[in-house]
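Format notes (please read before filing issues)

Several people have asked whether sequences and structure tokens are stored in separate files. They are not. Every record keeps both together, in the order shown below: the sequence lines, then the token lines. Line labels are part of the format and must not be stripped during preprocessing.
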Amino acid sequence: MIDFVYSNAEREMATFGFDAVTRSHCRMCHGGCGTLVYTKNGKVAKIAGDPECPIAHGTLCSKGLASAELAYHPDRLTHPVKRIGPKGSGKWQQISWDEALDLIAEKMLGYKERFGAESVVFGYGTGRENEAAIYRMANLFGTPNGLTAGHLCYGPRISTGIITCGSNPVVDYENDPQCVMVWGNNLVIANSDEYKGESLSNCLDKGAKLIVVDPRLTRLAARADIWLQLRPGTDAALALGMLGVIIDEELYDKEFVAEFVHGWEPFVARVRGYPLDRVAAITGLAGDDIAAAARLFATAKPAGIQWGVAIEQQINCADNNRLLMALMGITGNIDKPGGQVLFRTPRIRNVGKFGAHDMLSQEQEAKRLGGERFRLAGNFGIINPKCVWDAIVSEQPYPVKMLFFISSNPIMTRANAAAVVEALNRVEFMAVADFFITPTAELADVVLPAATWLEMDYIGDFWKRHGYILPRRKVVQIGECRSDHDMLNDLAHRIGQGEFWWDDFEQGLDYILEPMGITWQQFKQMHYVRGEVEYEKHKQRGFSTPTRKFELYSTRLEKWGYDPLPSYREPTESPISTPELFKDYPYILVTGARSPGFFHTENFQVGALRETQPDPLLEIHPETAAKHGIADGQWVVIESPRGKVRQRAKLFGGILPGVVGAQHAWWYPEMKESGHGWAESNINVLTEDAYESCDPAMGANSVRTLLCKIYRDPDQRSPGEREKTR
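Then the structure lines:
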């Protein structure tokens, strides 16, 4: 516990009788928001934003404010359990940590001996800052199979950034961009990575111009100077069209292109294949609007692009990212103050070094599932989930016998949920670490109680590219919950990795910080550390690519057998590519709309958050709703060739009549007799995971754009009401 001398904090403590206040930072989504955690009688009594946090400056969202309610929830898993009876029976027996870890170790070693280390697959969800420790264990164990969200979330930004310019370009909001183009991102309510909505809002308040590319009328789109409401899935075509305008009108930075760009001539030739009239026909936008947006972005100096997972969860995933980077690069906004900066992390052992990627043998690395097909992903240790499900079911190219999921709920978050459920039912052994018994945990053999951010010491944000690290300080201990890092450190000693781990994971934190010459205890007394900020580093050293230049023509993609130039692919399921299917499924379904209170599959148990939105919502244009006799608030069936689910209608004029927008990851913790209602409203029951529909280099599933039909459900009871009559 650390007492900080803040006048406001002292007043709070005196007024409400708090015992102490601890400075930490939240991890209810992607993290970074500084907090002041007040305790009384050994329990968290209040959480507030830390006004001195360099990332969020005292702002805190509803999720952060509700952290204590999640941590102390009566359904919280607070001790290890093992399943009694068949999978999905809902019957659990409490066991000790020793018994749980001994069992997991026994299974890991047994499968390794009989089927090879590759038969054990580790999995984790969207970054809980445990990825470095998970990869360390997997690599030292000898399995190349880490099942992450990295094939369609953030991983594509990192991997394409590295092959294009050496890192992930981050908007430098501190130095006042004059224009921000927000592309497929709703930062003011979403859970973005390096960014927080407060920085963008302040930038706009200072007068920055705003361009928004989004098929939905978001809060930001309503505020935009130019809103481009494109046909979903056509982002790459739009970017190519904008690049064409910038090139034709010579609005690009000629000096940057001449000195620092690789592949300019073939890139220009590729762009010429997408004239404005063609792009307008593909995207459904007016050519004049596309040109106006291109001119505004190219002439406002400096400018940045704020983008997110919406463009990554498409068949054009890698090229979408590369094209946006091309827009940043040729306009001269790379590594400029107020532009798109390649920030440096502090001098620490980063995720790659800590994750022991160099200790996985080439022989084992060659066994990575899907590695030969999705080489961009495989080069960064990322695999496509279907490769795992197929290996479980078919035992090809080899059998997968064990899954170990940490902070992951793939039944709800991965494409084609029915295929996920089949695989999880068939795998021989599965362990899960989580806060609650989720739909995925229901099928596990052992479930371990994970710690929330309030219950751990850790070096926060050290996986990000904004250059900051912040100490997350443990505030309370709840039950027998343990951090993922502590749990894995303990397990490592049981599977023969003890020499590469530590007696206590605090020594692991020391190891991360060692290059800076400090220990965890010293870092714990600091506010934060930021890496050295330097702009236009390429003028002295070039870019960290094979050519030392900004690669519009990717030499690495060429080496791996892919098209080195970005292009546009029509989604494999659309009015254009599948016109016969479109007759039966006449609406484009976009998925993944965020709700402020939820983080993917998390927080549906938290009353303060669930009350703000009790049910999942399907956005439907009023004209479309009237056509089907659907009234606002009614339960609607959404059906694709893969299945059907139900969500409540939300009549919304900010979406095109031919498009409907569903929310993702919905389950019902209260429905304990039917797998927590995993199939009731889970939009991934409808999504496709066929290899042919994935990005060819990254393996990203095209879960954001597919075809569906909708109709009013004759049964207007809620899922909970229906369960009572089953």
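For reference, the curators noted about this record: Residues 1-5 have pLDDT under 50 and may be disordered. The first strand starts at residue 20 and ends at 25.
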